Structure formats: C-alpha cells, structure tokens
Amino acid sequence: MENELLMIKEEALAKLDNCSSLKELNDIRILYLGKKGPIQEAMKSMKDMAAEDRKVFGQTSNLVKQELSKAVEDRKEILENQAILDKINEERIDITLPSYKLDQGTLHPLSTIVAEIVELFLGMGYQIAEGPEVETDYFNFELMNLPKGHPARDMQDTFYIDENTLMRTHTSPVQAHAMLEAQGKGPIKVICPGKTYRRDDDDATHSHQFMQCEGLVVDKNITMADLKGTLEVFARKFFGEKREVRLRPSYFPFTEPSVEVDISCHNCGGKGCSMCKHTGWIEILGAGMVNPRVLEMCGFDSEVYQGFAFGIGMERVAMLKYGIDNIRDFYNDDIRFLNQFSRKE
Ligand code: FA5
Q1: Exposed (0-12), middle (13-18) or buried (19+): which is 298, by Cβ within 10 Å?
Q2: Does residue 53 sit in the same domain as residue 199?
Q3: What angle do CA 329, 106, 343 make, to 5 degrees?
Q4: pLDDT digits (tens, 9 = 90+) for 73-120
Q5: Is 95 within the bounds of a domain?
Q6: Distance from the CA of 69 to the center of ligand 1, in angstroms?
Q7: Which residues contact ligand 1 via a Cβ below 6 A?
Q8: What is the pTM of this model?
C-alpha cells in the first residue's frame, strides 16, 4: 500500500515537471490532491489497518501529500514567473521599428499671414487693439465721418442686425475705440487684425466675410512721410526688399488726404505681367492722414495731434504673396489647398 502511494507520488511529480500551463497545473492538483484523488482514497482505507500499520501509513501519506502540495506551489511560482516574462516579451517595444506617420494639422494660410503681419508691426513698436465684430452704426460709420445718409456708406454694403447695430464693415471703428480710450492723449500706435463683413457678392476677389488689418498712429508732428515710410517697411519686409511703394490719391471720409497704396509687382519686378494686369503695380491697401473731424469726434485736439491710418485686406495680400487666384479657396476647407501650406519639417 505504501509502495503504491510512493508510485503515485512519483507519477504526480513527473507530471508536474512536464506541466507547462497554470490550467494544466490546476488539473494535476485536483487529480492527485483533490477529495477524489488517489491519496485521499488510500487514506480512507486506513481505518481497516492495524494500529501500528495505520500510524506508519498515516505519516507516509501525510508526507506524500505535503511533498506534492509543495511541488505544486513551486511549479506554480515557476509558471507564474514564466507567464510574466512571456507577457513582457510579447509586449516588448522594438524602438528600432520606423514609427507610424502621424497626420499633423497646419496653420491656415490666413493665420500665417496674420501672424507675419502682427509680428512685423510689433517689431515697429505697435500694440494690438481689438474691437467687436458686432458693432454699432455710431462706431462703424458716424465716428468715421460717415453720418447717416452719407453717399460713401454705399461703398460698404452692410449686414444690419437692427437699425443701430451691424456686422462691422471694416476694422476702422477700432480706431475710434482706441482714440476714445486714450482720452485725447497721444501717442497711439496700434494695429487691429480682425474679421469684417460686407454684403458683397462672392466672386474670385470678394467675400461677404473677409479679414482686414487696421493700423493707426496718432501723435504730434505726424506727416504723410511717416505713413509712406511705414508702408514701405511693410511692403519690403512682406513682399521683398526690392518693392517700391506708390501712393495714388483716393477718397475715404475718415482720412484726408486719402490714398490707395500700390506696390511694384513682385512677380515681374514692375515690367508688367498678368498678375499686375500689365501695369507693373498692384494695389494692396487704403490709407491716409486721419481726418481732423475724426480726431475731434474721438476726443483729440486736431491742432495738436495728427495721425495716419491704413487698412490692409488680408486675403488680398495673402493671394498676392502666395499666388492664389480665388479668395474662396481660403474658406472652402479643401484639404488639397490647405495641405500646400503645411509645415514641411
Ligand atoms: C476700407 O475698408 C477702409 N476702412 C481702409 C482704410 C483704413 C482706409 C484706414 C484709410 C484708412 P476698403 O473698402 O477699400 O477700405 O477696404 C480695404 C481693403 O479690404 C481692400 O483694399 C481690399 O483688399 C479688402 N476688401 C474690401 N472688400 C472686400 C471683400 N468683399 N472681400 C475681400 N476683401 C475685401
């Protein structure tokens, strides 16, 4: 009987040695050490043994049981450690593999232009001013010397919200906000990039919503030469060192005198090409000396202070700079268009 027990032990130990999974180990444990296992069965037969034999057999079967239980535990530890190692190996990251290409977003070309212009003027000592896109008639028109019924209001067809509230048609009302905030004391040196809205029919060069960047300088002894010099710096930094600036007489009610500003065509260098309609010049913005009436309405003594202002059409300069021939490309969210401006790094 005892021999049988020892043979069962050897058989179980051999199976434990060969077992390779925790599930298999559990099956072996139940098979040999479970309630219906051979050791338990053998122990049941002890009751028929002589007292002396029972003692010896009892000790032997307990030893076998303990030995097998320990062997099961030892094997379990080995298998568990192995399982952890297998998992680590399985999840090992091969850092030598090439990585997946991540699609990266990119700045919208208009945002790039805004950032470039802002940086350029900040470098010249300007600050950024902001104003509301939903504006009052008073700020958008009246303080800009465009009283109700003024014919020049027709130049800026307007989205009205109610009789006195509208979507601003230009960034010029920010001039009035800046001047009123300054309470009649100069100097003021601000730019205001922002969205503007007009009831224009959308076509290749017009959009009902577009961006402008207003510039305003108010101080003592400001002249047209300061305006021209500033615009020359802008044109050369933005379009290239060889650009010439030309001022043509124009009319804006809020500036006097007023000018349209052309730059020599950066495509042909001024010789004439399709981009400049064979004139050698390209119009980029409107500007002028702040009308004394505007200075006075906005709290400045026009005998003491002068100012100049300009309004850049952002899409138009972006179109010139990047050779884009349709303003709608900025707003159509066509990924093929936008990808052309993606970072190259
Ligand atoms: C103005 O809006 C004046 N406030 C600019 C100004 C400021 C003049 C300060 C003097 C002093 P204008 O209506 O010309 O001016 O518009 C300025 C620029 O905005 C234009 O040169 C053009 O580049 C752009 N622009 C005008 N309308 C549209 C439109 N519908 N779509 C796209 N760009 C436009």
Answers
A1: buried
A2: no
A3: 105
A4: 999 999 999 989 988 988 888 888 888 888 778 889 999 999 999 999
A5: no
A6: 90
A7: 155-156, 170, 172, 198, 200, 206-207, 210, 212, 214, 252, 255, 285-288, 309-311, 313, 315-316, 327
A8: 0.72
